[in-house]
């Protein structure tokens, strides 16, 4: 089977007041079976036929990154507006 893949990684690093998170995205090379030696190998390039798969995978990665908060971030819509928060008695 030949194909391409995109992976979204969650990375963390320590700072003075705790952990910080960021994401990185990797594109895996296209794999192919070398008929000469029967071994799977990485290709150094993509074929025009790979472009729809790459577009779909990159779009899904983009949607995930855009819509999934990092650890410690608020989920969109869960924020309490400041003016309401200030009016709530402690």
Question: What does the model show?
Answer:
This protein is elongated. The chain has two helices and three strands. It is α+β, with helices and mostly antiparallel strands and 90 residues long. The chain has helices at residues 51-67, 82-86, and strands at residues 3-15, 18-33, 40-42. Strands 1-2-3 form a three-stranded antiparallel β-sheet, with helices on one face. A hairpin with a 6-residue loop joins strand 2 (18-33) and strand 3. The chain has one domain (3-86). The longest helix has 17 residues, at 51-67. The mean pLDDT is 83.
Write the SSE topology.
Blueprint: E1 3-15, E2 18-33, E3 40-42, H1 51-67, H2 82-86
Number of domains: 1
Give the SSE string.
Answer: EEEHH
The spatial strand order of the largest sheet comes to 1-2-3
What portion of the residues fall into strands of 2 or more residues?
Answer: 35-45%
Question: Structural class, from secondary structure content?
Answer: alpha+beta
Helix content: 10-25%
What is the compact description of this entry?
This protein is an alpha+beta fold.
Features:
three-stranded antiparallel beta sheet; single chain; alpha+beta; 24% helix; 36% strand; 90 residues
């Amino acid at each position: 089977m030949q194909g391409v893949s995109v992976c979204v990684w969650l990375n963390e690093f320590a700072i003075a007041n705790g952990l910080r998170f960021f994401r990185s995205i990797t594109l895996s090379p296209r794999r192919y079976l070398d008929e000469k030696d029967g071994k799977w190998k990485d290709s150094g390039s993509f074929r025009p036929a790979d472009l729809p798969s790459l577009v779909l995978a990159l779009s899904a990665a983009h949607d995930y990154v855009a819509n999934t908060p990092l650890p410690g971030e608020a989920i969109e819509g869960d924020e309490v507006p400041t003016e309401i928060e200030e009016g709530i008695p402690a």
